[in-house]
Design brief:
Strand content: under 5%
Structural class: mainly alpha
Shape: elongated
Largest sheet: 2 strands, antiparallel
Number of helices: 8
Radius of gyration: 24 Å
Number of strands: 2
Strand order of the largest sheet: 1-2
């Protein structure tokens, strides 16, 4: 019994001593860099939001004359309130998921699986499940199949689509009835600024942070 316990301990010590110390994925530099860049992008995006009282100003509401007028209003209001609108869409999604806690837990688990089992898992640490080591290709294939199953073959996909459609409908309804004449748009402002730029920066941050880990698996 003593020798059976001593052998694994020696193997573990020699493995750790021969290479870098084993770190959980959440403690890796790549994951910390990802969180830092994501937080910075969120702060930059929210710093460009418009005052909420302008969004809900009842004196600036009127019925559009026709569909062309409604479409023009939606475009101008979206250019001005894009950060607020995207925040509103995120709130609708969050409320929808919070009202379905099981779906929220499944999505969080799926996200955690991608982050900690593949993207930010050190390449020198094989994935062991029930004593079997899984290669990176097997892990990636399993995550892709699991994602497709969750999104397209369960009620979670329809829940997300319904929440997005409701959010877009609210945004379009507000944009069509909000008179944009009192809104002053900066003509020199880049078209990709604001919260949409945050989305691009967040995606870039994720790609840059995960690139070393993914490249080492190719």
């Amino acid at each position: 019994m003593a020798s059976a316990v001593t052998i694994p301990m020696k193997n573990t010590q020699s493995t750790v001593g021969s290479g870098a110390k084993a770190q959980p994925p959440i403690a890796t530099p790549a994951f910390r860099t990802f969180l830092s860049r994501l937080t910075s992008s969120i702060r930059q995006g929210f710093s460009q939001r418009r005052p909420w009282y302008e969004l809900i100003d009842r004196t600036a509401m009127s019925r559009p004359d026709n569909l062309t007028d409604a479409y023009s209003r939606i475009r101008r209001n979206f250019s001005y309130f894009k950060v607020n609108y995207t925040t509103l869409l995120a709130v609708v999604l969050a409320f929808s998921l919070l009202s379905h806690p099981f779906s929220l837990l499944v999505l969080l688990g799926l996200l955690a699986a991608w982050l900690f089992l593949y993207l930010f898992r050190p390449s020198d640490q094989p994935l062991l499940i029930f004593g079997r080591a899984f290669s990176d290709r097997e892990t990636l294939g399993a995550l892709v199949v699991l994602t497709l199953f969750v999104v397209f073959l369960t009620s979670i996909g329809s829940l997300l689509i319904s929440a997005v459609l409701i959010g877009v409908a609210i945004i379009c309804l507000h944009g069509a009835f909000r008179v944009p004449e009192d809104l002053f748009l900066d003509d020199q402002e880049p078209g990709n600024s604001g919260f949409l730029s945050f989305l691009g920066n967040a995606a870039t941050s994720a790609a840059v942070a995960a690139a070393p880990a993914v490249a080492s698996r190719v």
